[in-house]
């Protein structure tokens, strides 16, 4: 059965609402469908799910694997795990309280592994517990900075995980216990965080150790609008290129009104999600525009041109 058909059959509200309250389901429907299509689940598959959450994705997976398959689902939140056990009592599924990065060795090997949260690197347990020919779908940080996550598809071939495909999107970072989630979104990985009202967080992150995150965050707030340097539709492809290239002084950040990525060189310059460029100086803007021109000369390398590869336990981008 196709993923889209299964999503039409399964009532999401049944899982995300309980006693009039909404159970946190941080993953958007379109992202769930995309990742389940990447997972390519077959009837009879044994699947390891990292992040039980509301149980909605578990319900979808059970429909896809059928009665002959098996689902093992892990979460760090005991209440969610217990709730899922009750909802799926008698089904071909197990629910356990466990840090997802450890996997669940007792049920291995698995034909498919899917993670609804992002580890900082590829867990050794996942590699060991994935069956030969199996598929793994998870997001990973592609740089040592916030908002650098990319969703990936790996297949195990001759005992090695081989990167096949990347897609837009990411999930909250994996943590050992629920209390670690005081911050939200990219702020979890940021080098400097400023708290706003209504649980808003403004942040700055860089993989350049020579930069002062707080100082550059303040510069980002002061940056002035200069010009439109990208089409809004080009932003995501350019972002992948930015993550692929290891340019000195690169950063990601959000001031609330503006979010994006850029570089520090004789000042600070960045592009926001609408393709608009901001900078604190003309030299900084010119430096960043040269990087944009380089991207144009190389043919606007983007999502379709890249694949994930493992460098040790770290997932990075590589051109196909």
From TrEMBL:
EC number: 2.1.1.77
GO molecular function annotations of the record: protein-L-isoaspartate (D-aspartate) O-methyltransferase activity
Subcellular localization(s) per the UniProt record: Cytoplasm
Keyword entries, A-Z: Cytoplasm, Methyltransferase, S-adenosyl-L-methionine, Transferase
Domain of life, source organism: Bacteria
A GO term from the CC aspect: cytoplasm
Gene3D superfamilies to which the protein is assigned, alphabetical: Vaccinia Virus protein VP39
BP terms from Gene Ontology: methylation
CDD domains: AdoMet_MTases
Keyword S-adenosyl-L-methionine among record annotations: yes
Chief place of localization: cytoplasm
The family this protein is said to belong to: Belongs to the methyltransferase superfamily. L-isoaspartyl/D-aspartyl protein methyltransferase family.
Protein name: Protein-L-isoaspartate O-methyltransferase
Species: Baia soyae
């Amino acid at each position: 059965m196709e993923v889209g058909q299964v999503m039409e059959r399964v009532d999401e509200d049944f899982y995300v609402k309980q006693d009039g309250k909404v159970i946190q389901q941080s993953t958007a429907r379109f992202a769930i469908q995309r990742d389940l299509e990447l997972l390519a689940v077959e009837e009879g598959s044994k699947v390891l799910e990292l992040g039980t959450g509301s149980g909605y994705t578990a319900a979808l997976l059970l429909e896809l694997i059928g009665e002959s398959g098996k689902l093992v689902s892990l979460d760090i939140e005991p209440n969610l795990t217990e709730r899922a056990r009750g909802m799926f009592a008698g089904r071909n599924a197990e629910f356990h309280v466990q840090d997802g990065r450890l996997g669940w060795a007792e049920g291995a090997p698995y034909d498919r592994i899917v993670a609804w949260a992002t580890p900082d690197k590829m867990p050794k347990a996942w590699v060991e517990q994935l069956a030969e020919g199996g598929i793994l779908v998870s997001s990973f940080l592609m740089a040592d900075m916030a908002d650098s996550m990319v969703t990936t598809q790996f297949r195990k071939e001759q005992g090695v995980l081989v990167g096949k495909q990347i897609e837009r999107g990411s999930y909250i970072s994996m943590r050992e216990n629920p209390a670690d989630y005081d911050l939200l979104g990219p702020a979890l990985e940021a080098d400097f965080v400023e708290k706003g009202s209504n649980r808003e967080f403004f942040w700055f992150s860089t993989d350049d150790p020579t930069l002062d995150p707080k100082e550059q965050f303040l510069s980002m707030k002061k940056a002035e609008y200069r010009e439109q340097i990208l089409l809004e539709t080009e932003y995501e492809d350019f972002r992948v290129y930015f993550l692929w290239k290891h340019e000195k002084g690169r950063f990601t950040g959000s001031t609330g009104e503006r979010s994006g990525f850029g570089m520090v060189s004789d000042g600070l310059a960045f592009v926001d999600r609408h393709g608009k460029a901001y900078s604190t100086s003309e030299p900084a803007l010119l430096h960043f525009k040269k990087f944009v021109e380089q991207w144009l000369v190389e043919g606007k390398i983007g999502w379709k041109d890249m694949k994930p590869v493992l460098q040790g336990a770290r997932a990075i981008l590589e051109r196909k």
